[in-house]
TrEMBL record:
This is ABC transporter ATP-binding protein. The lineage of its organism: Bacteria, Bacillati, Bacillota, Bacilli, Bacillales. It is found in: Cell membrane. Residues 1-28 are annotated as: Disordered. InterPro entries: AAA+_ATPase, ABC1_TM_dom, ABC1_TM_sf, ABC_transporter-like_ATP-bd, ABC_transporter-like_CS, P-loop_NTPase, Type_1_exporter. SMART domains: AAA (SM00382). Its main location: membrane. Residues 1-18 have a biased composition (Polar residues). Residues 370-604 form the ABC transporter domain. It is a multi-pass membrane protein. GO terms for cellular component: plasma membrane. One of its GO terms (molecular function) is ABC-type oligopeptide transporter activity.
């Protein structure tokens, strides 16, 4: 990957957000960029249900036709009853109307049932695609995104789209057919009254244009603000212990208030402008009704039309403006759904993690011989984090990485695991450039134990089995015993079948670390990466963890990111980094004898100075 590509795709994970940056402050939300294109992409997820969709359209055609036939027959009934006093035919016509409205209701029920099926299947496919795509994105992508915002796209935006698909397709089809049929029948009965009815259309479209021009902006902003507030809530709930520790409740509440106010304002204006639509339509309905009754009454008195025609027109005028009203309302709903769909497609369109080279090969095992040869790397062009780094770790050796924050320790690990690719130089595993090895097979040879253990909301057994999914229960328990975790697991309410809370909060930090070590043992990696796995642990638990780590590291090439230097005295090789360069190299005693930077670090920690 070139420096420019890294600049565009990645951010420095060691960097921190500036305190002054206010993510919740209202900003101008982008407009819906491409309604037609987004709708076409949604159709791509629906197209595998064409047969069912045709049935929905057929039901829409039947229900629309019956809804047009009912008012016409009602007008004919009125004329016969008034003009000819044919009371005998009244019962017949009412029976026919009853059958018509019954079948219309049935067709509406079927079209809604089938459309719900289509909508749920469509959103199911989209949600699967989005989640699967998220798993293929690079680490850099997630370092730049709030998890709450991503969750909002998976949940809120998807549900918004689901609700829209449930109703909008039917509403649009029904409204279009009803409007077309109504105009044809009205023209046949009375062109003059039809003209009066259509007078409201230009006024209606002018008003709708003014309204929808504003609703699109605010619906988009509402979705953005919703994602932002979800992200902030997730961040605050995850870090609640830090908030309590530093007594920052008031600060968090105020920041939430700003975000909540932004969501309230965008939602207020979106709903306010969209609320003008039914008011406008009701006013135009009343104007149309008054014109038809007034002019129609004059025409009837002069014998130009019958009373039944007036009845038909008053019904059709309502039936004509109602679908126009529905179209207008649905347009706002669709704008909101399209805004959410664009947010979903924005993630789906993100480039996946760089593909393996065409000639990359799988590896089934490695000896663990690791070489960095003149490796340089920067997250941003012109800002190298690593500068001409070279070292060699032989099979089974333990290499410790020490140095101040931002020196490049984590970056070395990120390059070794191919979360990023070096800008210059080569990284060799058993003499083979890692860019010629598939990422999946390379990472299968590596085990990681982080400072903050990541556990899942499932049983203890399945958390350990995550290291090797096909492991038997016996192998899981053996790994736990080797990791000194079996003792505390046996004391849990259901032992290995105890379900842990989210992130394993129901057990202690040290116990979570032991489970992480057991998971790594089960994976049986050739290369082990430890990120200060014994930090913030009590003395007794630390002894258990160190004993488990010694067992885990035996015979494996191990990289240890160390902050507490007394934990790496027995490392075969210690690399001292500063400003992205290896400034010292050797074992513990050799580096002490040099009386350089490492010597000063050790003495500072012995004197309890802060490094």
């Amino acid at each position: 990957m070139s420096r420019q590509q890294n600049k565009e795709a990645n951010t420095n994970p060691n960097s921190q957000q500036l305190p002054g940056r206010h993510r919740g402050a209202p900003v101008k939300a982008p407009k819906v960029k491409n309604i037609t294109g987004t709708l076409y992409r949604i159709w791509g997820y629906m197209s595998n249900q064409k047969g069912l969709f045709i049935l929905v359209l057929l039901m829409v055609l039947i229900s629309s036709s019956l809804s047009l036939l009912g008012p016409y027959l009602l007008g004919v009934t009125v004329d016969k009853l008034i003009a000819n006093y044919e009371t005998s035919s009244l019962i017949t016509m009412l029976s026919i109307l009853l059958v018509i409205y019954l079948f219309q209701s049935l067709s509406v029920w079927f079209q809604n049932y089938w459309m719900i099926t289509i909508a749920q299947n469509t959103v199911y496919r989209m949600r699967n695609h989005l989640f699967s795509h998220l798993q293929q994105l690079s680490m850099a992508f997630f370092q730049k995104r709030q998890s709450g915002d991503l969750m909002s796209r998976l949940t809120n935006d998807m549900e918004n789209l689901s609700r829209t698909l449930n109703s909008s397709v039917i509403q649009f089809s029904t409204s279009a057919l009803t409007i077309t049929g109504t105009i044809i029948i009205m023209l046949w009965l009375s062109p003059l009254l039809t003209f009066l009815t259509l007078l409201i259309v230009p006024v209606m479209f002018g008003g709708l244009k003014w309204i929808t021009k504003r609703t699109g902006y605010y619906f988009k902003e509402q979705q953005r603000n919703l994602g932002d507030i979800n992200g902030y809530m997730e961040e605050s709930l995850t870090g609640h212990n830090i908030i309590k520790m530093f007594s920052r409740e008031k600060k968090v509440i105020e920041e939430f208030r700003v975000r909540n106010a932004a969501l309230k304002d965008s939602g207020y204006w979106a709903q306010t402008y969209s609320g003008f639509i039914p008011k406008l339509m009701n006013m135009l309905n009343n104007v149309s009704f008054a014109l038809i009754v007034g002019v129609g009454g004059i025409l009837a008195l002069n014998g130009m039309i019958s009373i039944g025609v007036i009845v038909i027109f008053t019904t059709y005028s309502r039936q004509f403006t109602r679908p126009l009203n529905d179209l207008a309302n649905q347009f706002n709903i669709i704008l909101s759904a399209v805004a959410g769909a664009e947010r979903v497609f924005n993630i789906i369109d993100k480039e996946e993690e760089k593909s393996d080279e065409a000639d990359a090969t799988d590896i089934s095992s490695i000896q663990g011989d690791i070489k960095f040869e003149a490796v340089s790397f920067g997250y941003e062009e012109g800002q190298d984090i690593l500068k001409n780094v070279s070292f060699h770790a032989g099979p089974g050796e333990t290499v410790a990485l020490v140095g101040p924050t931002g020196a490049g320790k984590t970056t070395i690990i990120s390059l070794l695991t191919r979360f990023y690719d070096a800008d210059e130089g080569e990284i060799l595993v058993d003499g083979q450039n890692i860019q010629n090895i598939t990422r999946e097979s390379l990472r299968k040879q590596m085990g990681v134990v982080l400072q903050d253990s990541i556990l899942f909301e499932t049983t203890v057994r399945e958390n350990i089995r995550y290291g090797r999914l096909n492991a038997s229960d016996e192998e899981v328990e053996q790994a736990a015993k080797r990791a000194n975790a079996h003792s505390f697991i046996s004391k849990l309410p259901k032992g290995y079948d105890t379900v842990l809370d989210s992130d394993g909060k129901s057990i202690s930090h040290g116990q979570r670390q032991l489970l992480s070590i057991a998971r790594a043992m089960l994976a049986n990696p050739s290369v082990l990466i430890l990120d200060e796995a014994t930090s913030s642990i009590d003395t007794i638990t630390e002894m258990k963890i160190n004993d488990a780590l010694d067992t885990l590291m035996e015979g494996r090439t191990s990289f240890v990111i160390a902050h507490r230097l007394n934990t790496i005295k027995n490392a075969d090789q210690i690399l001292v980094l500063k400003n992205g360069e290896i400034i010292e190299k050797g074992n513990h005693q050799q580096l002490l004898d040099q009386k350089g930077f490492y010597h000063d670090l050790v003495k500072a920690q012995e004197n309890k100075d802060v490094i």
